[in-house]
Amino acid sequence: MSNPGEPVTYWKALAVAADNNQLYLNEEAAHACYEACDKYIAKLKGHQKTARDLRNVTGWGDFDMGLQLQDIFAKKAVGGENNMVDVLQSHIDVVEEMKVVFNMFFTSTHDVDKANAAGIEVEGPR
User: How confident is the model at residue 114 (pLDDT cuts 50, 70, 90)?
Assistant: First the structure.
């Protein structure tokens, strides 16, 4: 599931547990969680767009201090250390990992159902 040397995150560890049948979530709950993740990612991406727009903040005047403040705030939005766009991206990355885990529950359910249906077709009803 992870590359050698890559730290295992909480959600990657849950994905491994789900792969090993050590974690269970019913299909309906997994779908609801997956859809909630999609909605949350859309909100986070909207906030990223807003943060990118803040890189062009103006109105601080022509004095050196105003220009410095403009630069400081622009870098907090985009490009600086711990800027908002990157912080939001780290949240998006975690939610994407969450989606992988939730997807495993309804994908595996469908796979099991298909296998059971195939077995019934071959053997017939009992």
Answer: low
- Write the secondary structure of 58-122 as one string of H (helix), E (strand) and C (coil): CCCCCCHHHHHHHHHHHHHHCCCCCCHHHHHHHHHHHHHHHHHHHHHHHHHHHHHHHHHHHHHHH
Chain centroid to CA 8: how far?
A: 15
Question: What is each CA distance from 110 to 68, 71, 107, in whole angstroms?
Answer: 57, 53, 5
- In the Cβ-directed half-sphere of 42, how many Cα atoms lie within 13 Å? 6
pTM: 0.75
- 105, 30 contact by CB (below 8 A): yes
- Top-confidence residue, 2 or 76: 76
Eight-class DSSP state of 24? -
Place of tokens 């998006």: 92
**Residue linked to tokens 């019934």:** 120
